[in-house]
Amino acid sequence: MANLADLTAFPALQAVPDEQLQWLLDHAEEKKYPAGHLLHKPGDPIDHLRLLLTGEVTIGAEPDELLHYTAPAITGVLPYSRLTEGVQPVTVDTDARMLELHRDHLRDMATTCYELTAALVQQMTDRVRNFTQQAQQEEKLASLGRLSAGLAHELNNPVSAIVRNADALRNHMRATPERFKEIMHMALTDEQTDVVNEWLFEKLDNKTAPLSMLERSSLEDDLTDWLDDQKVPNGPDLANSLAEFRFTEADLDFILEQVGPENVAGVLGWVNNNLVTEKLVVDIGEASGRMATLVASIKSYTHMDRGGGREAVVLADGIRSTITLLGHKIRSKNVAVTVDIPDDLPTIQGWPGELNQVWTNLIDNAIDAAPDTGGTLAIRSYVEREQFVYTTFTDNGSGISDGIQQKIFEPFFTTKGIGKGSGLGLDVVQGVIRHHNGSIKVASKPGETTFTICIPISNE
């Protein structure tokens, strides 16, 4: 049978007068539960203050276990708490003994047991603070996990391209001596050599839009016919390289006129050698540039080159960095993303790292909600009354029902399957927006869901 010694073992109750602890003993009921017992399921009413005298209890289920209590510990409903029903299962891990006080007694306790009530309210305050810190940390880790998976895919493509093209370039360079021999046997004047060089590098410097598949195929056929007429060896392969850089029959006629039919094959072989080298170098440069963009995006996203305080935040930078890092997921779902953010949008005073969590959650949720084909996400920012910056995220998913709209910002609420969502995302989003003295609203109907974020330009 529970006694005063059992209650004074609770650090939170050690300063409570004995008569108030005795009141608690007189009105509470002692219960014993075996290991593995399910205290309540999600959705069950929470009607008792529970004092865990012996044993252990876990809130949540694998892989999303949230809290673990070891006796002595205080759980359940607390004075002035608005908790009415559970959102996570509560399981007894080992044989446990508890004191349970029904919520009907809490009003009486608040009027007759001041110190006891104050101690329990302090427990609620600590619980809220600890939960908020834990939820934010878990959501940061979840965001990092999503981004790291996408980043691995994003980096794999340019890295593979660099390795592949570097090997090809190495093999290609080994064939250069053979081309050099052919050139040495040609009797070209300095003037002819200069003409060929200027003509080649002028073509390489002229960046034009790529040809369509049909246009390129037609050009390759024309070039192949020209090369066959001039009895130039390896005509189809050479035509493929020439078409890549949009050489025409007129270009080949020009070279034929400059170097003569006896030298045209050797000159075009040398030209092809330069084109292949140029193509490999360009591909390596583009892949390297892609990697540099990704590194810059993750650096911007993680805020790793700046302090952790409030500062002027360019919303477009954070949103575009997030889109870049979620690029693999966006492409895998074939979601068309449009961003409409004016170049002159004012900066806001805030915490970039926190806001990047907001963008990650909203964009990630929109991608998940988008249909498998024809998914869209439109992001738009604008200024209202020269005081507020509004940012909207609109997707064409199936929508959120009215009943669910009222719950989506609650802690642990999620519509995703088990193991696919902790229900912390939108709760953390709302907390971050409130930290910036802003607001977030949702409007939804089938085929159109819009989250609207309002943040004051000045947070003074």
Automatic annotation (TrEMBL):
SMART domains: cNMP (SM00100), HATPase_c (SM00387). It catalyses: ATP + protein L-histidine = ADP + protein N-phospho-L-histidine. It comes from the Bacteria. It holds the Pfam family HATPase_c. This is histidine kinase. The keyword tRNA processing does not apply. One of its GO terms (molecular function) is phosphorelay sensor kinase activity. Residues 290-459 form the Histidine kinase domain. Keywords: Phosphoprotein. Its EC number is 2.7.13.3. It is an enzyme of class 2 (transferase). Residues 12-127 form the Cyclic nucleotide-binding domain.
